[in-house]
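Note to self: keep these together.
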Amino acid sequence: MNLRDLRYFVAVADSLSFSRAAERCAVTQSTLSIQVRKLEDYLGVRLVARDRAHVSITLEGREVLRLARSVLASADEIVALRRGHLPEQLVATGGVSRGAAQRRAPEPVTLIERINKRRAPRV
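Structure:
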C-alpha cells in the first residue's frame, strides 16, 4: 500500500467513475483499476463495487476512504512543511498543528482488525 494507491482510490470514490478518476490522476483507466484492485487485495476487502454501468463504494470502502483522506492530508502537510510552507499555527506554537494531530490515522493493523470485526463478528 502506498500514497499513490490511496490517491487513486479517493479519486474513484470522488468521481464514482474509473475513467474520470484516471483522467484526474493522469493515468490510463487500466492502470488505475489495477492499482485499486491491488489495494483491495492488500487490505483483503472489496472497496469498490463495480459493474458495467455503475461504481459504488462498499461499507468497508467508506471506512478506508475516511482514513485515506486523513493519511493523504497528513502526507500533504508533511510535504508542505518540507517545502517551507509552514502553517501559521505551527510557526507560532513551535509544534504540530491541532489539525494534523486530529488527522493522524491508526496503524494499518488496527484498520484491518476493525474491518475484519465488521465482516466476522465474535463467534
